[in-house]
Design a protein that fits this description.
40% helix, globular
């Protein structure tokens, strides 16, 4: 059974330092949330399953805006811990998040 948007977090940059630390916090404080980790290195990302048991991996980069948008529409929250210096992806993420509207 796939969790609904109410229980899902899309986490971009999960394999980096900030993203992995956030994942540890989520595992401790919010283990009920299903986390979808968006990662360009699936082998590295698979190791994250040892941190958070309710995790699935989507292979892609921040430049794959169509894929990010597809996954973002399935999630209640989108957390971007990825590269903030990649201006096209930052603009794309801003557009994607504005389509979702504010969270309640």
């Amino acid at each position: 059974m796939n969790p609904g948007p109410k229980e899902t977090i899309l986490l971009l940059g999960a394999t980096g330092y900030i993203g992995s630390q956030l994942l540890i916090l989520l595992a401790k404080e919010k283990p009920q949330f299903h986390v979808v980790a968006f990662a360009r290195n699936v082998v590295k990302a698979e190791k994250l399953k040892a941190i958070h048991g309710n995790l699935s991996i989507v292979e892609g980069t921040l430049a794959d805006l169509d894929l990010v948008e597809k996954e973002a529409t399935k999630a209640k929250y989108v957390l971007n811990c990825g590269d903030s210096n990649d201006i096209p992806s930052v603009k794309g993420m801003s557009r994607i998040c504005s389509l979702k509207g504010p969270s309640h």
